């Protein structure tokens, strides 16, 4: 089954309307709504709810003063980091101060959402507005503060260095400086966040929430509400997209809704509306980058110093994960002897930053790949040739880069063929023949350009993931794992792993994800880790079952386990397929009951009676049944890699940017399901196009979001996404897990901005230093170029 382009088993249920999303649940629940701050920065002087009490159907109103115990404390930092020198987090409900637009101040619970919203509108909150800090420049100058006790607005600093950077730059024949900029964007999932909580008759708290990390939510909510983990169940229903946004642990609403359910002894539900998603959910990107690079006449980079300021919003609840990811990905597939990276995380009065598909990596690739293009331009060299000079040779892998990654360990590239990937891309996009296409387009009055960008991405992040696999006497296999699925096809991929290991039909495997009742310990879905870590755990668990099944069958058939094989749901003797046992019979045999209730149990009883007189029915230290719990804990991340090329056409009058071709060469190790991998790449490229050409959060100087709806926030339609993405797969199996796989979920988005900027620059003939770039932005750049305020490209070949 591994390597087969199997269509997704979950699709029939989802496309026929049988999915169960958060808002499909809790028809009997009370509804919550929130009064949210209309200011980016203000003191909360008074909350007057007196006018709301007359609303029929109102059940409760909560402010910070009503929160008990730990629920009234600041939300914990979920991922501490040694570079986080001034951690600051918010409260579930504002405690005297709000620090971003949309911060929750009051929670209202009523019979239904309409009543809850009506009551919320009647609550009068008195604010004293304070000067907000909006944008990186405002934060850097620190004329105003986000938090009074953080005078420089610096949340943390990550510094990494390898080699003598100052000496390398001083000795380099050529030195260039670049100033780059990437703006804020957002995940905008089809389904917003949501929480449903109820207390069962046994007192257990059951939380349904659209999260990527159910076990983490269980742990922190139990802690904040004074409960034991064992008294809380967290269940993730179907999720309509997450992209990192739902990996925050926990959101204020994930504390407040369960708290209300416990206090009221009734189920309570909240589902985020679209405006709340715009103004109150996490965002990402937002970096100013300064790159100083030294290189020789051949284009070989001798050293670089990259200094980045990162807007992380008002709170550092998620630690410095995104900043760390940027820092540790400023390496690319290149062997640079001396390198330094400094990322300064700055507080602003905007919503907090949390991972959004790519999670700091697109920004890093933008810096490094724009640097490579600038080196090529300065020397008049082909852009692909400059990259080729700097690539890490395959015979040097595994390759230690000297920097440390998100897991705190040294970045060590495990496997890959970077030169092979570049060659494959050049062939795929017809790189060497592009000048002929450019000339033909010019004769037609059209302007086209080509760009490329390479990347290496850490995937399969630890610390672990687990899987429980059970083979039932009816022949069906059930799998439970701690990861969640938001459209990645986990049910199919994990079923393929089990089917391959146990020799059963794909349709006989049932996969459950994101339910703490199915497996006690889990980590979750993020950082392209599903197939790598959970898939490896599933493989380990299935192999344990296979080993015991072969031993049981060997005893029953009086054969050597090494002479047996599992094929099509049957254990049979190699070369003598007629000597066999159905796997379901072996499953029944593994549980030596003293009675039979079906044909398989009767068959198992027959074999059980054949055992020696002094042999116990259940072997020492064996458990009844064919069930196994296994965990995979990777020693370090795997590293996927790839390279993208894009051909664009820029309209000479309207400045519209149209993508003519988009080509991807991708290496995620062993490919379990090429159809799903290609789907992941397609989705990532679509988001990369959006982040490159359309999507930006437009805040004014007061911290008000000016485009907080899909009427104003530009997203690419199907007409703007390349209709055909050309993909070539390379496979460099990873030695770090039993499947040899690497992650693929974020690959499509990571190099997109850098590749598209390279292509637009190539078409227009002047430098592109900021993304996203919309048609009006390109129009303004053309005006500046005509006025001599933007430097032209130096190379003859554009």
Strand content: 25-35%
Give me the number of helical elements.
19
* Residue runs with pLDDT of under 50 for 5 or more positions: none
CATH class of the largest domain: Alpha Beta
Could you tell me the number of beta strands? 29
Characterization of this structure:
This protein has 798 residues and is α+β, with helices and mostly antiparallel strands. The chain has three domains: 11-130 and 188-280, Aldehyde Oxidoreductase, domain 3 (Alpha-Beta Complex); 284-461 and 635-786, Aldehyde oxidase/xanthine dehydrogenase, molybdopterin binding domain (Aldehyde Oxidoreductase, domain 4, 2-Layer Sandwich), CATH 3.30.365.10; 465-632, Aldehyde oxidase/xanthine dehydrogenase, molybdopterin binding domain (Aldehyde Oxidoreductase, domain 4, 2-Layer Sandwich), CATH 3.30.365.10. Helix content is 28%, strand content 25%. The protein has 19 helices and 29 strands. The strands form seven sheets. It has a seven-stranded mixed β-sheet with strand order 3-5-1-12-9-10-11, with helices on both faces. A six-stranded mixed β-sheet has the order 7-15-14-13-8-29, with helices on both faces. Strands 18-26-27-28 form a four-stranded mixed β-sheet, sandwiched between helices. It is globular, with a radius of gyration of 28 Å. The relative contact order is 0.12. The mean pLDDT is 93. Residues 16-131 form the Aldehyde oxidase/xanthine dehydrogenase a/b hammerhead domain. InterPro entries: Ald_Oxase/Xan_DH_a/b (IPR000674), Ald_Oxase/Xan_DH_a/b_sf (IPR036856), Ald_Oxase/xanthine_DH-like (IPR016208), AldOxase/xan_DH_MoCoBD1 (IPR008274), AldOxase/xan_DH_MoCoBD2 (IPR046867), AldOxase/xan_DH_Mopterin-bd_sf (IPR037165). GO terms for molecular function: iron ion binding; oxidoreductase activity.
